[in-house]
Design goal:
The protein has 252 residues and is α/β, with parallel strands linked by helices. The chain has nine helices and 14 strands. 35% of the residues lie in helices and 19% in strands. Helix 9 (221-231) links the parallel strand 13 and strand 14. The longest helix is centred in the middle third of the chain and has 12 residues, at 83-94. The two termini are 26 Å apart.
Length: 252
Amino acid sequence: MPKTSTGGAAPREIVARAGLVLVDLDGCLAFGGVPHPDASRFLRAIDGRYVVLSNNSSTTPDALARDLAGYGLVLDPRRILLAGAAMIEMLAEESQSKFIQLIASDEIVAYARARELRLIDAGGDIVALARDTGLTYAKLARAVAALAAGAKLVVSNPDLTHPGMGRVPVPETGALLAALRACLPDIDPRIVGKPAPILFRRALARFGVDAAQAVMIGDNAATDGEGARGMGMNALLVGPGHALAGIGDLVA
């Protein structure tokens, strides 16, 4: 299991002294879109020093904030960084002139259109992959054809699953990536979400905090833990298989 140095400090002390607390969504703050019972108490305890750093690739920060507010969990959309939305923002910054075949939820497609990305149904310079619960054989075949013809692959996140209600695994973007890799074993995607550094760097830059002053709280050693370690950041893992049962253990 990946570990980062905590200097012998207790988990609550690490959270209390952090300049920025990066916290995962699924499996930490919420399950199946429903907030963890301790989520509001946790956010009050860290007094606005948080950023939600999630590999969620189905929705946008504004929409997620609205959904969680319906359950009584109030989040500032500016303090939410999601892999799917971040992928679209990155493409808008770097690849505005490219033709992009986007495999994603309707919400992420709308987010891309609002940023005037040049979306096409087949071919293209880039195949951009996010979680798409409407993935069809035809979509998969068009993506494989574009990649075989030389298109670059950008993927929102590598997670095979995320924990839903009752911690039942929910298929994620990485499961769709596995289907592409089954057809094209040598493809080398650019990953946006954890454990890649892109989301971490965006969070630290947005709030002007160094990695050494931040802590990542997550439930996945391969994404949250590895990503934090790669940034030189403390990581605290919660949930089954970890020393901490949940986010409630991190605050008094």
